[in-house]
Amino acid sequence: MSVAPEVHEFQAETRQLLDLMVHSIYSNKDSFLRELISNASDALDKLRLESLVDKDLDVDTSDLHIKLVPDAEKRTLTVIDNGIGMSRDEVIELIGTLARSGTAELRRSLAEAREKGLSEAAAEELIGQFGIGFYSTFMVADKVTLVTRKAGESVGTRWESTGDGTYTIDEVPDAPQGTAVTLTLKPVDTENHLYDYTDKTKLRQLVKRYSDFIAWPIRMDVEKTVPVEKPESEKDAEGAEKEDAEKESDEKKAPETKTVIEEETVNSMKALWAKPRSEVSDEEYQEFYRHVSHAWDSPLETITLQAEGTFEYQALLFIPTQPPFDLFMRDSKVGIHLYVKRVFIMDDCEELMPEYLRFVKGVVDAADLSLNVSREILQQDRQIRAIRRRLTKKVISTITEMRDSRPEDYRKFWDAFGRVFKEGLVNDFDNRDALLKASVFQSTNSEEDLTTLADYIGRMKSGQDAIYYMTGESRQQIVNSPHMEAFRAKGIEVLILSDPVDEMWVTSGVEFEGKRFQSIAKGAVDLDDDEDEKDEKAKEEQNKAFEELLKWLTETLSDDVSETRLSSRLTESPACLVGDTWSMSPQLEKLYRASGQTLPKTKRALELNPDHPLIVALNKAFADGERDKLVPTAKLVYGMAVIAEGGELEDPAEFAKVLAGQLTESFAGGSES
Ligand SMILES: Nc1ncnc2c1ncn2[C@@H]1O[C@H](COP(=O)(O)OP(=O)(O)OP(=O)(O)O)[C@@H](O)[C@H]1O
Fold it and tell me: Ligand 1 test: best mutation among 10, 31, 35, 39, most atoms within 8 Å of CB?
């Protein structure tokens, strides 16, 4: 009894995506084949691994391969693998929906692009950025049919869609184990980069270009012209004749041939990581990068490593050009695949690369591990730890070299991954120096250029013993903060640290070349040079003149400030807030609060600029004894200091009320006089 296929609807966002594919103007339509072969190769890897782990799995793994079957008459191309296959539910989940982690992000980008009318460039960029895997088949096919049977199951499933709003699901009792994807191809349209994908020369070319390194054989039936084998008796007779005849006449005689169909392996299957770098072209590396990273960009840097001796392993690593959308997501994965003697063992092997280098993609092939090594064993393994140490150092040194030899590429790297890279400063103590050396920072020295710490130190003023920095939410906020004033006036360079991660490492007691890091918004800063020392006496007098006001302010503002003192940081603003050397900065407090932690309020010191007319006037009014009237002014001075550094007032409405009151009074006072 045959049952009619079930019709399912695609999710709304999948429909949008398919629509994008069906009407794709993406110039690299050829890449659909790479996607199908990549999926097939993954499926073979999975089956091989499954059969190692599950001894009861009754499958034949002796001839795992991929086969391309073009049919010029029917205008179809089928890509077949005898890998792990999919169950009916998996087909619906994996193929019928966008189950992958990028879905939300992709959906957002699609919606945005749609709002803007989905320009050609936007569509191209989306495809390039996300790589749409299986769906890319709809760039070249009017109809896609997938027949699959999961290893260990008896019944197969057929999935079929023409890329409109629906797909059908059907049972296939006699499906071979593995997956076959048949594309009913769109008409050839070379102007739109749609080629004849039933042409074997074209297919061979595409496999060579995109998938040559795939570790499984990619086979195709090819027609070959071969000499006709003659029966032995005829051969003997010919042999005798030959002895008598002249060579000349032999050449004239056309050899008898016939056309046979032979199955040929189209890819070389050579593991690129095992080849010397000089034997691999940039294009080959690029395609391999795309295969392992599931990305569609080109690598910014390729790193090869061959270790011999106690631990034998080879590594081929890439630094991407574009950050993946999930770089900062919780489930963002480390991108290293582990192989043991050319056999794929696992992807996302976090034991091989620290989390802060999660943008590095590639392969490590270790010779001396067991094939069924588990993650638990890996965590304990001395060899794995040694490999990880070496790879980490190699990646850091490569990045440092890139900075010195290819500054433009380095800048791309830094803009894409600098924030992640700096996470290492927080938790990789062994490599901290190397990481600091490899990093660059914004500073007041230049608006565009970033500086190394070594260059900063080279520009330090004589007698300066610390690397000055300020953290904040943006360059603008930091540069305009009152804390900057005296530094600007004296021409002292300050590092501008505006990434959230900066707060973490810079406050962890780190030093560079014997120089500590000193926040300009924390602790006492002594910027006085020798000349100023003469003014020491004048200062003392000033302190005396303000002593009572400072005491009174400390008391009046005791809910918000730890103390009030005169400042040597300020030249233009009336006041600023300064934390203790080890206190938490307001930015860090905000970060913690945003992550749901409750923190006691950190009180900071209020520093006053004794030369500012407002502070001078305040001191005079205080000396004149109108203390109660001065309370609102004191609150305003504090509030202004918070706002000036880009902070948030605890009670903005209250601040506005006090300000309105003071302004009204000043007008009233003005009109009276
Ligand atoms: N030939 C196949 N055999 C078994 N499973 C497959 C096959 N092709 C696809 N799949 C399953 O469907 C999922 C979705 O495939 P798709 O190509 O859309 O994305 P992907 O391979 O996960 O990611 P990407 O395309 O970015 O590499 C795969 O992850 C895999 O689980």
Answer: 39
Res 211: pLDDT: 85
- Amino acid occupying residue 59: V
Residue where one domain finishes, among candidates 193, 221, 249 = 221
- Domain span at residue 130 reads 6-221
Residue 310 has a pLDDT of 77
Q: For residue 102, what are the CA distances in angstroms to 19, 109, 420, 428?
A: 18, 10, 19, 29
Query: Atom 20 in ligand 1: which residue has the minimum CA distance?
Result: 133
Amino acid identity, position 346: M
Ligand 1 near 40 CB (within 6 A): yes
- Is the CB of residue 300 below 6 angstroms from any atom belonging to ligand 1? no
pLDDT band at 367 (very low <50, low <70, confident <90, very high): confident
DSSP 176: P
C-alpha distances out from residue 461 to 32, 308, 465, 467, 529, Å: 59, 48, 9, 11, 10
Average pLDDT, the chain: 86
Q: Is 294 touching ligand 1 by the criterion CB < 6 Å? A: yes
81 lines ligand 1 (CB under 6 A): yes
| Atom 1, ligand 1: residue with shortest CA distance | 40
Q: What is the Cα gyration radius of the chain?
A: 35
- Does residue 524 lie within any of the structural domains? no
445 located within any domain: yes
pLDDT at 388: 94
Confidence of residue 531 (pLDDT cuts 50, 70, 90): low
Helices (DSSP H) in 344-440: which residue ranges? 375-380, 382-405, 407-421, 423-427, 432-438
Same-domain pairing of 552 and 590: yes
Q: Contact, 274 vs 365, CB < 8 A?
A: yes
Pairing mode of beta strands 495-497, 76-81: unpaired
**Contact 134 CB / ligand 1 (< 6 Å):** yes
Residues 464 and 509 in one domain: yes
Residue of 519, 491, 660, 497 whose CA lies nearest to 576: 519
| 423 is a domain residue | no
Distances (CA, A) of 392 to 302, 328, 386, 444: 14, 20, 10, 31
Task: State pTM to two decimals.
Answer: 0.72
Mutate to test the pocket of ligand 1, among 35, 42, 146 (most ligand atoms within 8 A of CB): 42
User: Is 0.95 exceeded by the ipTM?
Assistant: yes
Q: How far away, in angstroms, is 134 Cα from ligand 1 center?
A: 6
Nearest to 205 by CA among 263, 264, 262, 266: 266
Ligand 1 proximity of 43 Cβ (cutoff 6 Å): yes
- Token reading at 612: 């500012």
| Least confident residue range of 146-160, 326-340, 542-556 | 326-340
